[in-house]
C-alpha cells in the first residue's frame, strides 16, 4: 500500500505541470549528500512517518465475488494508516524554490482526495477514498525541525502532507459453490446378514426425475375409503 500511495502522490505532482516544465519529482530523503548531488530543479516528497488510524479500525468482514457472482473469498476489513510526507522544492535560487513550492501548494490544496485515475494496485481494487491533508497541524507527528536534524541537513521551507489510505485485509479462499444435489445410498440386510445393494436416491433442486435414481417429490397416497359398518345411516 505504501508504494501505491507514493506513486499516486508522485503522479499528482507530476500532472500539476512540474514534469512538463522539466522539474523532477522524487521520493528521496533530502540529506546533505543528496542535496550536493542534485543537478536540476527538483520537488522532493519524503515519507517520514507512518501511523495507524485506530479510530477507523473496523470489525466483521466482506465477501469477494467473481464475474459470475459467486463468493470466492472472504476478506477482513481494511486497516487505515496515516502517511506523512515532507515536501520540499530544490533549485539554484531561493526565489525559484519558493515558486515551485507555491505551485505544489496550489495543487495539493485543491485536492482533498487522490483521483481514482491515479490509484494503482490494492488502492484501486478496494475502491475506497484516499484523503489528503496539506499544511495541517499534526500534533502527534515529528516536527519539521526534528526531521531536518535527523537528516543532517539545514532547515528550509517545506510542506507537511498527510495521506490517509487503507491497507487491504487478509483474504481467505471460500469453498466452491454447490453444483450437485444430495446423494443418499441405502442398503438392505437379509436374514443371513449379507448386505444387498439397495436403491440409490438423489435429491435434485428441481425435484424432477433424472438419471441415476433422481427422485422427484412423491405424491401423498389418497386415504382408503372407510368401510361401512352395520347400523350406519344412509345419507
From TrEMBL:
Region span, Disordered: 199-235
Pvc16 N-terminal domain boundaries: 4-179
Residue ranges, compositional bias (Basic residues): 225-235
Record-linked InterPro entries: Pvc16_N
Domain of life: Bacteria
Protein name as annotated: Pvc16 N-terminal domain-containing protein
Naturally occurring in which organism (per UniProt): Streptomyces poonensis
Amino acid at each position: 500500500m505504501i508504494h501505491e500511495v507514493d506513486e499516486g502522490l508522485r503522479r499528482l505532482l507530476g500532472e500539476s505541470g512540474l514534469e512538463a516544465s522539466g522539474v523532477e519529482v522524487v521520493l528521496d530523503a533530502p540529506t546533505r549528500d543528496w542535496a550536493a548531488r542534485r543537478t536540476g530543479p527538483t520537488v522532493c516528497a519524503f515519507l517520514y512517518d507512518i501511523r495507524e488510524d485506530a479510530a477507523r479500525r473496523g470489525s466483521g468482514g466482506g465477501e469477494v465475488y467473481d464475474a459470475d457472482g459467486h463468493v470466492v473469498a472472504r476478506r477482513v476489513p481494511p486497516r487505515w494508516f496515516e502517511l506523512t510526507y515532507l515536501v520540499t522544492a530544490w533549485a539554484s535560487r531561493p526565489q525559484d524554490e519558493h515558486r515551485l513550492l507555491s505551485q505544489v501548494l496550489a495543487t495539493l490544496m485543491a485536492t482533498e482526495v487522490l483521483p481514482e485515475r491515479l490509484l494503482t494496485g490494492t488502492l484501486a481494487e478496494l475502491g475506497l477514498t484516499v484523503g489528503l491533508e496539506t499544511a495541517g497541524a499534526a500534533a502527534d507527528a515529528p516536527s519539521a525541525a526534528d526531521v531536518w536534524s535527523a537528516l543532517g541537513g539545514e532547515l528550509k521551507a517545506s510542506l507537511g502532507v498527510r495521506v490517509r489510505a487503507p491497507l487491504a485485509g487478509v483474504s481467505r479462499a471460500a469453498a466452491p459453490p454447490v453444483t450437485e444435489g444430495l446423494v443418499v445410498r441405502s442398503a438392505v440386510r437379509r436374514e443371513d446378514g449379507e448386505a444387498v445393494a439397495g436403491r440409490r436416491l438423489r435429491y435434485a433442486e428441481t425435484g424432477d426425475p433424472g438419471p441415476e435414481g433422481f427422485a422427484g417429490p412423491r405424491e401423498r397416497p389418497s386415504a382408503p375409503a372407510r368401510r361401512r359398518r352395520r347400523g350406519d345411516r344412509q345419507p
